[in-house]
Backbone:
């Protein structure tokens, strides 16, 4: 029954097609029956209801379409609406453990067992929630305004026989609309008619993929007449198409009009978000609306990423929970033991409340536990998350986005932080995964060399060839340009010179006919659109990729000028064909275009010459073309293969060109199958590929092209700097192994001093298996080979590391990588890779890029960064901890999926070594300081508990506790998180080894937390016992002894002053903002207490401290305590920081000492420049003699220390051996020895 149901679906559609003009009533019945059939069918197959696999749309008939209840065209990108904002917003906030904890504490504080007023916990929680919700509301309001503007955009819709303007939101599926030039398409449209000849239009897809190249779209010839409203009103077609999906580049459907079924392809679809160019207006029928349009279905948010530091912060919060529980448990046990009627002055006789009933000590202990939880709740810093969010947001918007060092003037592109969650992650990256084309290279393609009929042409020398010559010591004599100036041409996309084939000289070559085929293949096999005047000097080419534009430009310079295109013809102005100097315009009919995709890796066109000759021209990757060549011409194949290897080793991108002569009978039979595949509603792309295979065979090789893609500026220097910073860089590319290796050499990723491990599928055993064609045997042999190679390389790598310490490099191709990622082999792959300084993966797919990234991220638990510029890099970018997109020439899809966007690879130096490192050090300081100040405050309350019989009596006033985190200590820590700077940006790049402290997480280890915890314990003891002991014999001016609120106010004053001054001691740089925030916070406390103590209301417990501050400030005790307590408390910190800086300095502290008295931007590199007249030993001795013998400006101690010497020497590339009398042992020296062990 289920099978019959599914079989009936097409039958119903065909019936609807036949009755396309039978009236509205019949259409309603058709639609109702279709919906009924599809729903019944799905229920039979599955328990859950499922939408039908296709949809039927009746054009220009709203009533018939209403039955299907298609979605409207209004869009909403907001997270909330008026009803859901409060519940959903609060839910989002309480997903955070700290906020949920404080909600529970606030609820507990309203019960009788709470020693503090509810305001103590409710006020800070309310402030935090208010700030967060206002931020959410503001962001959502901006989204709402943007949505409203888009939904209100006017568009012309056919009403009767005239165009009427309505807003986008009122548009419905099936409507006929008119879009004018430079206008945006309001929905996904079926292109019906255009004002241009032959029903074509030009669109720009920049909003979809960032590509500014114009694309051509062509309407079906059957609908060209529907451009006028009177004619369009007669259009009553029926569209049968796929359900809405997120595939931007595919579309499957049919148009049924007057019983005729016409296949639809992506060429007839105009997607929402694209704009119309060079066309007066177009007419289209709405297919998908609103959130069902392809662009909206692609607008997925970037996967939510949490930084490693934030996950470690969760562990610290859990540790604080443990500390809180322990403190409460001690208090609860003490309360159960202490409670006794012998303390008659407590009045525990008769009926007493359960919390103080000596008859039930267990209940006393339990209730005291809850009491103390509310009392000690401040140990968890409630304002920490809000402060961190604020700091990260400002770091992104004001520092990263506005850094002129990361601004690319040529493209007017600044750096862009698309998320503020991962700032500090940039300071801990250990592995970078990079694409090659457009990321390391410029993606500006130039036709550089070629091979035609087994003869290589082109005299230029690439940057990589020059680099190879320098490494091997060879001299390369480049052709003198002045001698070949008559034939040399250099324009955008073309940098070629060879007098043998320029200016018609190809007619004198050994085989001019094959040269002619080569040039015609370049001029005809493409999808390029010409723009401007039809003259070689003024014409511009709009191409889908820079490679295509370069090839067409090459054809023009060889005398085959592609000057005009119509939907069915290509006009080529050919020179020197019949005879030298002869120029003629030749029109070639383009019968079929077999488009390029990542699976086919080739593109073909079937064209008819004016004389009737039928030819298939094909261009594609060498591996794909060679598989489809005829058996003849073995010499040309061999020679071309050699040229391909030569071009690849020079770092050039290669394509093979081939052709095939076709007979009319063969073409007609094949074309029938092609039309059937093109009309198929199911698996159309697969069927088209299968049909293409039938004709793309028996090809004759013409030759190959070689295109140069030069390195971006500053890439080698950037990679060298990042390597010195301890970052390992992997290149993942789809290029051939030779090309990838030479690019790696050119950008200093690999050098001759490295031991290279190469794992490739290009071995004799694997080739023999591939010749036999048994896929099972091929897989078995490759897997065994990869397994053997991995084990061998791993053993050799361990030997090299233990014996010589030589740097290692791994090169592996895509086929081998596929098997190396097998669960049984991936451990060996990971171990080998982690031992290598550089890894190059060639011929890899986008999925493999993501798998390699995940392997290191999850297997090695290292922090990873992926950087790329194309759509094929999106999966890799999303798989890494941090994704960086290059806003280059391959569109904006990589940028849209990234966390950070930059214009050039070299900007990674500033992004990581400057902003990343600063963010990491600042946030570590913010988090540990928060931990310290809250622990200090809570422990003073804890010590007081021991003197109150563990009763839960509060030491501080409720408002003191409420405002401690949100007013009196809030602003200074934010200022430190924004402006603290250990070394300047230039020094961060000059000493890249400073970055290793972030990789090793030196500033957020448990040891660092323990030091802060120790001083919190020490300070709390000083605050509590100094103030209480000093006040035991004290009295005010009226002779009264000091009470609880006098002592607690004095202690709280000392706490506020001391913790703010302690933050000042932790600062590396002090600005006016530090002074203002710290003095302002202390002043805010005094202003508050003056006002608070001067007013009394009978409705709360404020009367406890009425006039207290005035009484205190009238005594000498107050001023003496305020002077001595902070000094005694901070004396220990001062001694610890001094000893640490003297004998155990961090790397950044050494750099601070060197440049203590230097102005920003001065350089000391001149001190280490060595003259060429010195021998290597003399040069090293001279360099070491000029290294700083550091005198610390902070301590007065002078060192002549090999520890310092080795640090500076390693920065300058000078070898300085360690000596046994190394006194000042630095952290970097210890870590280096540890790594060697």
Residues:
């Amino acid at each position: 029954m289920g099978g019959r149901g599914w079989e009936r679906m097409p039958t119903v559609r065909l019936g609807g097609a036949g009755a396309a003009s039978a009236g509205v009533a019949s259409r309603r019945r058709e639609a109702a029956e279709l919906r009924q059939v599809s729903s019944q069918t799905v229920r039979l197959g599955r328990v859950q209801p499922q939408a039908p696999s296709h949809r039927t749309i009746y054009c220009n008939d709203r009533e018939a379409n209403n039955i299907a209840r298609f979605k409207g065209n209004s869009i909403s990108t907001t997270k909330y609406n008026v009803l859901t904002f409060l519940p959903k917003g609060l839910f989002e906030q309480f997903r955070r453990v700290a906020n949920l904890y404080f909600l529970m504490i606030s609820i507990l504080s309203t019960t009788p067992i709470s020693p503090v007023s509810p305001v103590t916990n409710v006020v800070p929680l309310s402030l935090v929630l208010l700030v967060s919700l206002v931020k959410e509301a503001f962001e959502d309001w901006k989204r709402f305004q943007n949505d409203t503007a888009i939904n209100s955009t006017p568009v012309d819709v056919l009403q009767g026989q005239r165009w009427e303007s309505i807003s986008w939101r009122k548009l419905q599926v099936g409507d006929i609309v008119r879009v004018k030039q430079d206008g945006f398409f309001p929905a996904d449209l079926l292109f019906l008619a255009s004002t241009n000849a032959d029903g074509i239009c030009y669109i720009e897809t920049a909003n979809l993929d960032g590509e500014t190249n114009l694309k051509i779209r062509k309407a079906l010839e059957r609908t060209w007449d529907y451009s006028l409203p009177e004619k369009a009103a007669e259009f009553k077609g029926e569209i049968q198409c796929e359900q809405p999906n997120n595939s931007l580049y595919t579309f499957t459907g049919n148009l049924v009009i007057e019983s005729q079924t016409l296949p639809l392809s992506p060429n007839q679809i105009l997607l929402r978000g694209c704009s119309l160019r060079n066309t007066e207006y177009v007419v289209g029928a709405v297919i998908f609306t609103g959130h069902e349009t392809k662009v909206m279905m692609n607008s997925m948010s970037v996967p939510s990423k949490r930084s490693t530091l934030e996950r470690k912060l969760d562990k610290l919060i859990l540790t604080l929970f443990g500390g809180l529980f322990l403190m409460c448990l001690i208090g609860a046990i003490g309360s159960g033991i202490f409670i006794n009627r012998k303390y008659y002055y407590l009045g525990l006789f008769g009926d007493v409340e359960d919390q103080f009933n000596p008859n039930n000590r267990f209940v006393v202990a339990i209730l005291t536990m809850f009491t103390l939880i509310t009392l000690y709740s401040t140990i968890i810093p409630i304002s920490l998350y809000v402060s961190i969010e604020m700091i990260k947001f400002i770091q992104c918007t004001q520092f990263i986005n506005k850094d002129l060092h990361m601004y690319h003037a040529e493209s007017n592109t600044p750096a862009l932080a698309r998320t503020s969650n991962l700032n500090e992650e940039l300071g801990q990256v250990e592995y970078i995964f990079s694409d090659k084309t457009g990321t390391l290279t410029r993606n500006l393609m130039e036709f550089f060399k070629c091979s035609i009929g087994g003869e290589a042409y082109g005299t230029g020398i690439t940057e990589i060839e020059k680099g190879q010559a320098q490494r091997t010591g060879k001299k390369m004599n480049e052709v003198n340009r002045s001698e070949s100036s008559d034939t040399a041409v250099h324009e955008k996309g073309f940098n070629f010179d060879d007098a043998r084939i320029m200016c018609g000289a190809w007619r004198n070559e050994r085989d001019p006919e094959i040269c002619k085929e080569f040039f015609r293949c370049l001029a005809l096999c493409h999808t390029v659109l010409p723009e401007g005047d039809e003259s070689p000097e003024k014409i511009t080419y709009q191409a889908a990729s820079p490679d295509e534009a370069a090839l067409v430009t090459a054809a023009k310079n060889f005398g085959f000028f592609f000057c005009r295109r119509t939907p069915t013809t290509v006009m080529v102005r050919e020179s020197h064909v019949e005879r030298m100097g002869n120029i003629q315009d030749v029109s070639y009919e383009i019968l079929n275009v077999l488009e390029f995709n990542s699976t086919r890796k080739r593109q073909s066109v079937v064209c008819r010459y004016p004389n009737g000759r039928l030819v298939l021209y094909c261009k594609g990757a060498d591996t794909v073309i060679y598989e489809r060549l005829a058996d003849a011409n073995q010499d040309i194949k061999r020679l071309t293969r050699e040229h391909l290897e030569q071009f690849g080793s020079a770092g050039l991108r290669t394509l093979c060109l081939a052709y095939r002569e076709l007979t009319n009978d063969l073409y007609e039979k094949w074309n029938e199958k092609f039309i059937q595949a093109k009309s198929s509603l199911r698996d159309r792309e697969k069927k088209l590929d299968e049909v293409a295979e039938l004709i793309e065979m028996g090809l004759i090789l013409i030759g190959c092209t070689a295109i140069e893609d030069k390195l971006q500026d500053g890439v080698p220097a950037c990679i060298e700097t990042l390597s010195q910073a301890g970052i390992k860089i992997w290149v993942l590319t789809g290029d051939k192994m030779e090309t990838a290796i030479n690019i790696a050499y050119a950008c200093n990723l690999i050098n001759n001093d490295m031991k290279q491990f190469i794992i490739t599928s290009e071995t004799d055993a694997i080739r023999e298996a591939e010749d036999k064609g048994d896929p099972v045997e091929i897989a078995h042999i490759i897997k065994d080979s990869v397994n053997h190679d991995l084990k061998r390389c791993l053993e050799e790598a361990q030997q090299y590391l233990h014996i010589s310490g030589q740097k290692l490099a791994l090169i592996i191709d895509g086929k081998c990588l596929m098997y190396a990622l097998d669960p049984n082999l991936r451990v060996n792959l990971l171990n080998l890779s982690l031992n290598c300084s550089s890894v190059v993966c060639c011929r890899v797919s986008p999925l493999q890029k993501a798998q390699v990234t995940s392997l290191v991220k999850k297997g090695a638990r290292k922090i990873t960064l992926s950087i790329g510029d194309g759509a094929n890099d999106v999966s890799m970018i999303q798989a890494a901890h941090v994704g960086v997109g290059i806003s280059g020439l391959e569109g904006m899809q990589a940028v849209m999926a990234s966390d950070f966007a930059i214009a050039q690879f070299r900007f990674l130096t500033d992004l990581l070594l400057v902003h990343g490192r600063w963010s990491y050090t600042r946030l570590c300081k913010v988090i540990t300081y928060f931990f310290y100040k809250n622990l200090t405050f809570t422990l003073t309350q804890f010590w007081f508990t021991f003197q109150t019989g563990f009763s839960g009596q509060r030491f501080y006033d409720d408002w003191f506790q409420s405002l401690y985190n949100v007013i009196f200590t809030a602003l200074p820590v934010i200022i430190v998180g924004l402006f603290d700077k250990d070394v300047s940006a230039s020094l961060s790049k000059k000493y890249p080894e400073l970055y290793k402290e972030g990789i090793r997480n030196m500033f957020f280890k448990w040891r660092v937390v323990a030091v802060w915890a120790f001083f919190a314990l020490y300070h709390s003891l000083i605050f509590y016992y100094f103030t209480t002991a000093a006040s035991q014999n004290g009295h005010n001016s009226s002779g009264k002894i000091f009470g609880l609120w006098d002592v607690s106010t004095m202690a709280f004053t000392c706490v506020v002053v001391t913790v703010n001054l302690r933050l000042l001691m932790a600062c590396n740089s002090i600005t006016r903002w530090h002074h203002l925030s710290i003095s302002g916070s202390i002043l805010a406390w005094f202003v508050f207490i003056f006002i608070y103590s001067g007013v009394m209301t009978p409705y709360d417990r404020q009367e406890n401290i009425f006039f207290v501050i005035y009484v205190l400030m009238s005594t000498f005790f107050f001023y003496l305590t305020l002077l001595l307590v902070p000094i005694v408390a901070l004396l220990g910190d001062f001694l610890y920081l001094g000893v640490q800086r003297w004998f155990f300095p961090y790397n950044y502290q050494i750099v601070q000492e060197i440049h203590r008295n230097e102005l920003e931007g001065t350089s000391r590199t001149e001190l280490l420049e060595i003259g060429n007249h010195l021998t290597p030993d003399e040069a090293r001795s001279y360099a070491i003699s000029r290294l700083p013998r550091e005198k610390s400006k902070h301590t007065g101690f002078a060192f002549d220390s090999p520890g310092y010497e080795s640090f500076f020497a390693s920065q300058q590339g000078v070898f300085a051996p360690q000596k046994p009398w190394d006194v000042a042992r630095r952290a970097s020296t210890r870590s280096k020895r540890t790594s060697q062990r």
Summary: The CA atoms of residues 564 and 571 lie 5 Å apart. The domain at 171-298 is CATH 2.70.150.10 (Calcium-transporting ATPase, cytoplasmic transduction domain A). Residues 908-945 form the longest helix (38 residues). The first strand starts at residue 54 and ends at 58.
